[in-house]
Amino acid sequence: MIDGQCMKLFCEDKTWSEADAHCKAHNGKLARILNDIRNDWISNSVYPNIVWFGANDFEEEGVWMDSAGYPVVYTNWAGGQPDGSADCLITNWGGKGLWDDYVCESGRFCHVCEDGNSAGTILTGDLKIGNNFLL
Ligand SMILES: [Ca+2]
C-alpha cells in the first residue's frame, strides 16, 4: 500500500500501450502520481530506470488528464518539459522523479499500475520485492 492504494511496479520494457493494457488486464490502470509520496516511492523504487505512469494529453494537447479521467494537478517536470514532444508521461527522466512527455510507442520502459480503489492519504507500505515488481 502506497498512499492508501495498492501499486505494483513492473520492469518488462513495454511501450505505453502495452503497459496500459497490462494494467487493465489486471483490473487496474496505470498509476496516478498525485503527490510527493507517490512520486518519491515510484522513482526511488526503480531509479535510474524510467517508468510510464497514468497520465496523458490524448484529448487536447498540453492538457494532462490522469488515468482516472481527472485533470493533473500535481506535477514534477524535468527542466524544459513538457516540450510538447508527445502524449504520454514518464518519470526518472534526467533525474530521480523528474517527468517528461514522451512518445507513447517509442520508448520501452518500466510501468506502474494501481488497483481500482480510490486513493487514500496514509503511507502504510513496507516494500516487498518480488521477481519483477514491488508490492
Ligand atoms: Ca518531452
Characterization of this structure:
There is one protein chain. The chain has helices at residues 16-25, 36-46, and strands spanning 7-14, 29-30, 51-56, 65-66, 88-91, 99-102, 109-114. The protein is α+β, with helices and mostly antiparallel strands and 135 residues long. It has a single domain (7-114), classed as Mannose-Binding Protein A, Chain A (Roll), CATH 3.10.100.10. Strands 1, 2, 3, 4, 5, 6 and 7 form a seven-stranded mixed sheet that branches. A hairpin with a 7-residue loop joins strand 5 and strand 6 (99-102). The N and C termini lie close together (7 Å). The model is unreliable at 118-135 (pLDDT under 50). Bound molecules: calcium ion. Calcium ion binds next to strand 6.
* CATH-defined fold name: Mannose-Binding Protein A, Chain A
Low-confidence stretches: 118-135
CATH architecture: Roll
- CATH superfamily (homologous) name: Mannose-Binding Protein A, subunit A
CATH class: Alpha Beta
End-to-end separation in angstroms reads 7 Å
Average pLDDT: 87
List the SSEs and their pairings.
Blueprint: E1 7-14, H1 16-25, E2 29-30, H2 36-46, E3 51-56, E4 65-66, E5 88-91, E6 99-102, E7 109-114
Parallel strand pairs: 3-7
Antiparallel strand pairs: 1-7, 2-7, 3-4, 3-5, 5-6
Bound molecules: calcium ion (CA).
